[in-house]
## 1
Amino acid sequence: MTRSSIKEYLNSNPESVLVLDGGQGTELENRGIKVANPVWSTIPFVNESFWTDPASKDREIVKGMYQDFLASGAQALMTVTYQASFKSVSENTRIKTLEDYDQLLSRIVAFARECIGDDKWLVGCIGAWGAHTCSEFTGDYGAEPAKIDYLAYFRPQLSAFNANKELDMIGFETIPNFNEIKAILSWDTSVISKPFFIGLSVHDNGELRDGTSLRKIGEYIKSLGPKLNPNFTLLGVNCVSFNHSHDMVKSLHEVLPDLPLIAYPNSGEVYDTVKKVWTSKGSQTKTWDDIVKKYLDNGARIVGGCCRTSPRDIKEIRTAVDNYGKQ
Ligand SMILES: [Zn+2]
């Protein structure tokens, strides 16, 4: 079976909810890949042995991760390209030219497609500008965030993803700064030519990491009216606190009741940025069953997990979506 366009699917099946995979970076780390480096989870693909060594252990690990997410019921899966901007890759790896960079991305996408098969949706994942300065959880983009050239930063990755037929959607993830949101939403179909979503990085208090209210972001989107890129398909939150995420979805739904939403929080653990470890402090006080129900009551159309969520979490999400979603 060949898949339909994800946007058309969402439009023509207004009651259905899709299950996304879990946090690829932390899941690969759990399975033994050392991701502590500037390109994070993209590192295994940068090593030529991934592509040339038939016995590559990393290949088996990535394949195993996708298989387990699929077995848990994921229908849409993401490429492992969160920290794979041209800037991050060219400054920190042996890959220096645009040509080699394009080859890296097309190899990663082709490999993911091979792992998941033709009937699942594949999302090309793009981390926030702040991912390369480790500020996606603070939103601190320096003194003049409006002057940052976001397009120059994103363009190489976007162009490669736009041109790749294996990708069904582009996901901007963990976006913490309002200026960055405005920039992304100012780009027309010549810059983003595929369906895309924006996952916001939101503080536990319900504000974007830079302090902007979700209401203000919603009002801004409404004010764009017909100027909005028609490929803008979903807005939502990712890598936010598990326990607070349903309130964020609710706030977005209140201001944008007709926009499909996406939600994939982290596991509820907290990242200690000093010790660089995840701690169980503040873990889940609710279950996936509780929060998925709340997401669905508030306009969520794609639900999954972000950092530290595993195939087990995706299975629980799948069960909850099957219970509460209308088929
Ligand atoms: Zn995450």
## 2
Amino acid sequence: MAVQLNYIAGEQKASRSGDTKEVVNPVNQQTVGEIQLSNEQDLNEAVEAAWNAKKAWKKLAGAERGSYLYKAADLLEQNVDNIAETMTKEMGKTLPEAKGETMRGAAILRYYAGEGMRKTGDVIPSTDSGAFMYTTRAPLGVVGVITPWNFPVAIPVWKIAPALIYGNTVVFKPATETAVTAGKIMDCFYEAGLPEGVLNMVTGPGSVIGQGLVEHPKVAGITFTGSDTTGKGIGQAAFARGAKYQLEMGGKNPVIIAADADLDKAVEGTVSGAFRSTGQKCTATSRVLIHSSVKEAFMQKLFTRMKDINIGDGLQEGVWMGPCASEAQMNSVLAYIEKGKEEGAKLVYGGNRWTSGEYKDGYFVEPTVFDEVKSHMAIAQEEIFGPVIGVLTFENIEEAFELANDTNFGLSASIYTQNISSMLQFIEDVDAGLVRINAETAGVELQAPFGGMKDSSSHSREQGEAAKEFFTSIKTVFVKG
Ligand SMILES: NC(=O)C1=CN([C@@H]2O[C@H](COP(=O)(O)OP(=O)(O)OC[C@H]3O[C@@H](n4cnc5c(N)ncnc54)[C@H](OP(=O)(O)O)[C@@H]3O)[C@@H](O)[C@H]2O)C=CC1
Ligand SMILES: O=C(O)CCC(=O)C(=O)O
């Protein structure tokens, strides 16, 4: 099996380290590929390539930059089967989800390709009647893109596409777990004919390549999605040297089931929000806040629906939930389940590693429900990133809103209710960047701003037009004859 090479200055390159790592399928530990554990020299070479390419790239018309993104979108779409299958093998997401994500990547590329033709500033009346004042935007320069393994196509693309269209050049450091899929995205960009050095990829340890990017004096901006701890470290290091940074981190997303909720829809939204992608989404539902009067009926319906969850290899037709992405991730989820029991929450569904038949060595965890969860418990406060939900009961809607906000995170929050006053109060009171009414907590549209409040992000937003705020600086221009 060929080693996944780096992409530097328009070429695929072997790392100077010579070290490699096997990437394995979390279903059966079969080898999916081999990636390079690159070193600082490789990183420096990639940053130099991006640095040398930035002037010419910035000078191209936006429409011309966009034409490369349109081509990359077409190539991503043409290769959807191959890319999606690799993604499923690398991190376990089901094939339909992986295909959907790849197609979403193509749609994101097309959206940002169009940005090359849209306005870049405003005319602002000056107090001097003889002057012309307006704003325009300048790219940052070289941008470092550091991404996680849970959306191996969508997240890299929603960072790389706006970075490029607004005139930046990029060094991309993908998650080690999904670096083979990342290579397939890079193939699409390279086949699209991007000029040399505009987009580079270096694989390798986060502590070396990721950290090296963050600290590199020629990297003007860092965009990151991943864990809270890593994100905060990146923010501090970037701030210390004056680089711009954007962090998308965790969530502890609540769904509120009000007394008047349509319970069938609420169950469907809870199951989909909590267990799709094996709960490995920052927008996944992890706390279910339920009015005591409908709790019993909701729980019955929830358990009935959960019995239909078909676990297995995401490549197989009909499988609805795959494994955790890695052994470390599975162990982390199982440790949280133990913690929940120790804390006194009541395990009412699942709670074990799932080892059925041919899947005995897979990194699977049963869909799991804890009841009688208290808000101070670690399982109600920390991101588990697996198929685990905690149920908390409330007596009135104000109490539900307080519980929803009783966490350091503030990414997504949802409510199921038919009462318009409850909806409006929820929209106003909940501390979350994504507020969802009668819809699951997960679900992100590429043309809308995405990001969270409190510790979920660095108070910035990605996607849609919001991406422009990170990837450019505003220039206010005053012209007088
Ligand atoms: N918000 C989200 O969408 C995500 C949240 N998570 C949370 O994080 C937990 C752990 O997952 P994990 O993959 O370890 O997440 P990390 O935050 O450690 O990894 C995310 C990315 O950052 C890189 N990285 C790691 N250390 C550094 C560093 N010091 N400087 C710069 N970049 C670095 C990683 O590289 P490498 O892969 O080589 O380590 C990867 O590319 C999960 O259980 C989950 O709770 C995880 C993924 C996504
Ligand atoms: O829900 C989504 O589509 C995106 C979620 C996300 O950004 C994440 O989990 O990192």
